[in-house]
Amino acid sequence: MEDEKKEVIKEEVSAPSNPQPAPAPTIEISQMNAQEAELEKADKKYTATNIQVLEGLEAVRKRPGMYIGTTSSAGLHHLVWEIVDNSIDEALAGYCTEVDISINPGNTITVVDNGRGIPVDVVAKSGLSGVETVYTILHAGGKFGEGGGYKVSGGLHGVGASVVNALSEWCEVTVKKDGGVYYIRFEKGGHVVQHLQQIGTCPIDETGTKVTFKPDTTIFTDTIEFSYDTIRDRMRQVAYLNRGIRMNVSDLRVTPAVQNTFCYKGGIKEYVLFINNHKIKLFDEVIYCEGSVAVTLPSGHTAHTYVEVAMQYDDGYASNIYSFCNNVHTHEGGMHETGFRDALRRVVNNYAHDYKFLKEGEDDLTYEDIVEGLTAVISVKHPDPQFEGQTKTKLGNSEVRKIVSQVVGEQLNRFLLENPKLARTIAEKIVMAANARMAARKAREEIRRKGALELTTLPGKLADCSSKDPTKCELYIVEGNSAGGSAKNGRNRETQAILPLRGKILNVEKAQAKRIFANAEIGNMITAIGGGIDPEFDVSKVRYHKVVIMTDADVDGSHIRILLLTFFYRFMRPLIESGYIYIAQPPLYKVEYHGKQYYAYNDEQLDTLKKTLNLKPGYPFQRYKGLGEMDAIQLWDTTMDPASRKMLRVTLDDAIKAEQVFTDLMGDDVAPRKEFIHQNAKFVKNLDI
C-alpha cells in the first residue's frame, strides 16, 4: 500500500497545471448495464455462493503440496512411495512376498506385487468396482475401521492410490484375482477412459496388482526425471524394515538394464550392520529386541502394536538413532524414541549401580553417555498411528512410549545378564563417555564464560554485519587471512559477515569432545553462529540463516570443506536440516579479452568461453589457485554478489546415507576411503598435487 501511495503522489505532482477534469464516477456506473452493476455489487460480498467445491480429484491437482509435500523431485518420487506402500501393506498383512519396481523408458514407473490383488467386485457405497473406487475417490480403501483389510499400514491412509492417479497424465492398473485378469486405464488426472474389464484368465492361486503411471508434466514442472539411486536406496530400506520381503528394482532406461534385488531375513539387525559397515565395532553381535502388545483403539476394538529394536556399539563418539513407524521414517522422533530412551537409561543405570561401575552416591549416567557410539534402529508397526510435527514425521501415540519401554527394557536387561563380558565392555565405554562429558562440559563453560560476542577479541577476527535480522544475514567462513581480507573489503557490510579460518580445523569424526571444544577455530564458529552446540543446539537462536563455506578450488580447499561439513553434521545438524548451510562456487578461470573480464567455473565452461569469443589456441588465461588471488571487486562480482553468485545448498535427504559418507571419508578405517576415491576419481576435473 505504501508503494501504491507513493506512485499516486508521483503522478499528481507531475500532472499538467490545468488538467482536464476527470469523468465523474456516476457517469461510469450509468454506462453499465444492470447485470454488470449487480455483478460488481456481488463481488464485494462474501456469501455461500463464493464457496468453491472441488469435485473428485480436482482438489489434489489444485493443491498437490497438501498431499505429497512438494512438486519438486521429492514430490515426484513420493508418488512411487505411495504405490509401493500399498504393496508393503499387503506384505504386512501376510499376503505379499515380492515387489518389482521399474523405471521405464519415457520415465514411467511400474510397480508389481504378488499380493491379494485389489478387489474387482462392486463397492456398494460407491457403485464402482473396488479398483476404480480406490483410484478415484479420496479416503477410500481397506485401511479403515475394524473390518479393514489391514492390521497396519503406511502411506497416506487411503488416499495414496487416488493421489498418484490425480497427478498422472495416465495410469494403468492390472489385477490378477480369482482366476481372472482385469484392466482399467485413467487419463488426464484420474478420469476413467477404459472401465474395468476382464482381459484374460490366470491360475486361481496367482494373484497380484500391477500399476504403471506417468507423472503429469503440468504438475511436476521442475523435473519428471526419476533417480534410480533414490528409488534403489529407498527400496533397500523398505526391505530391511520388512524382513523376508523381496524388493526388485530395475532401470530400463539404460542398456544394459540396471537391476538390484534386496531381501533380508535378518531385517533391521542386518540394517544396523549395513549402517555400521565401515565402523570399528566394540563387538560383532547386534542387540535385538522385539515384541507385540495389545492396544485398545479409539474405535474400541483391540489390535496389536509390534516393536523391533536393533542396536550395536562402535568405538566412535557419535550416536545414530533412526526410528520408523509403519515404514515411515520419523525424522522428528516421537513416543517410540522416548520409550527407547526411558528403557536404555533405566536398564543401563541399574546395571552400572548393581555391578559397581558407578560408586555409591555418584550421579546416574545420562542418556547422552549411554548412546555415545551407539547405532540403533527402532521400528514400530501401529494399527492407528498419529503423526504430528511440522513435517508430520513425529509419532504422537502416547501408549507407544510405554510399549517400547517395556519391550526394550525387559529384553535389554536379559541380554546384559546373559552376556556378562559384552555387558562389561558396554559399561566401561559408557563410563568413559561420562568422564569425557564432564571434561567437555568444562570446555563448554569456558566458551560460555566469554559472554557476548566480542568482535575485537575473537582470534578468528570475525567482521560482523550490521543487520540483526538472521533471515538477511550471511556468515562466510573463509579459508585463510588473505582471502578473508579480500572478502571483508568486497562484502556488503550490512548483511555479510566474514570469519577467516587459520588452516584446517579439527577432524571431529576422530577427536574426543574435550579436544573439540578446546579448539580455538571451532570455538569461534560456535560463538559466531550463536545457536550453541549439540546436544543443546537451538536453531532458533542462530544469527545467520546463510552459513557459507568459501574455500579454495583445490585439494586443500576441498579437505577444509569436508572438515567443516563433518563438524556441522555432527554438532549442528539442524543447520543442515533447515537449509542454512551453503557452499560458495568461486570461478576457476579468468579470461581478459578486449578490456573485459570473463569467468569460467570449470573446464567445460572455459572451452565454451573460448569458442564463444573465438580465441586462438594458446590465448592466455588465469587459473585461480586460491581465493586470495582475487581482489575484493573480483571476489564480490564472482562469488559474493547475490545478483550473480553461484551457491550450492547443502541438504540432508537421507541421514543414513550421509552418516555412511562421513564415516567413510573421515573415520579411522582407510579401506572405505580408498574405495570412495577409486569410485569417484573419474568425476575430478582438476587436481592440484
Explain what the structure shows.
By secondary structure, this protein is of the alpha+beta class. The chain folds into four domains: 2-43, no CATH class; 60-262, Histidine kinase-like ATPase, C-terminal domain (Heat Shock Protein 90), CATH 3.30.565; 280-444, Ribosomal Protein S5, domain 2 (2-Layer Sandwich), CATH 3.30.230; 452-586 and 649-683, Rossmann fold (3-Layer(aba) Sandwich), CATH 3.40.50.670. 37% of the residues lie in helices and 21% in strands. The chain is built from 23 helices and 25 strands. The strands form six sheets. It has an eight-stranded mixed sheet. The longest helix has 29 residues, at 420-448. It starts with a helix and ends in a 9-residue tail after the last helix. Mean pLDDT is 82; it is low at 1-43, 46-53, 143-147, 451-459 and 681-689.
Quick overview of this protein structure:
By secondary structure, the chain is of the alpha+beta class. The model is unreliable at 1-43, 46-53, 143-147, 451-459 and 681-689 (pLDDT under 50).
Spell out the blueprint of helices and strands.
Layout: H1 2-13, H2 25-30, H3 34-43, H4 58-62, H5 65-68, H6 73-92, E1 98-104, E2 108-113, E3 122-123, E4 128-129, H7 130-136, H8 160-166, E5 168-177, E6 180-187, E7 191-201, E8 208-215, H9 228-241, E9 246-251, E10 258-262, H10 268-275, E11 287-296, E12 302-313, E13 320-325, E14 328-329, H11 335-354, H12 367-370, E15 374-381, E16 387-388, E17 394-395, H13 398-418, H14 420-448, E18 474-479, H15 481-490, E19 496-501, H16 513-518, H17 520-529, E20 546-550, H18 555-571, H19 573-577, E21 581-584, E22 589-593, E23 596-600, H20 603-613, E24 622-623, H21 632-640, E25 647-649, H22 655-666, H23 670-680
Parallel strand pairs: 1-9, 13-15, 18-19, 18-20, 20-21
Antiparallel strand pairs: 1-2, 2-8, 3-4, 5-6, 5-8, 6-7, 9-10, 11-12, 12-15, 13-14, 16-17, 21-25, 22-23, 22-24
Helix pairs in contact: 6-8, 6-9, 11-13, 13-14, 15-21
